[in-house]
Design a protein that fits this description.
This protein is of the alpha+beta class. The chain is built from 3 helices and 6 strands. The chain has a single domain, classed as 2-Layer Sandwich (Alpha-Beta Plaits), CATH 3.30.70.100. It comes from Aspergillus rambellii.
Length: about 100
């Protein structure tokens, strides 16, 4: 099975909120474990360049998982992701997530 690529976009107008979210992603990258081992294959996060095509979404995240099962664990059980959601919830105005199996 090919890796699962997940794209998440946040719309956060408050700069301090964006900075807090970006810092929490750094924590997540170091602390996300499943069965005591890191399970996120790759992660990338940053502030989006201003562009009318992004429709106001200004933080972009890409995470790569070995399987849908790992992504489901991330969504439902991962303590590091729960901590990230707690930081994001009060500052985000909108969020968009999509995922796909990489065919390349």
């Amino acid at each position: 099975m090919a890796p699962i690529e997940r794209i998440t976009l946040f719309k956060i107008s408050d700069e301090a909120g964006r900075i807090r979210l970006l810092e929490q992603y750094k924590v997540l990258a170091k602390t996300a474990v499943k069965d005591g081992k890191p399970y996120i294959l790759a992660a990338a996060v940053g502030t989006s360049y201003p562009d009318p095509r992004n429709k106001g979404f200004n933080v972009s995240v890409k995470t790569t998982f070995a399987s849908l099962e790992d992504m489901k664990y991330y969504d439902e059980e991962c303590e590091a992701h729960k901590a990230l959601k707690a930081v994001a919830a009060p500052v985000r105005e909108d969020v968009l997530t999509t995922y796909y199996e990489n065919i390349l």
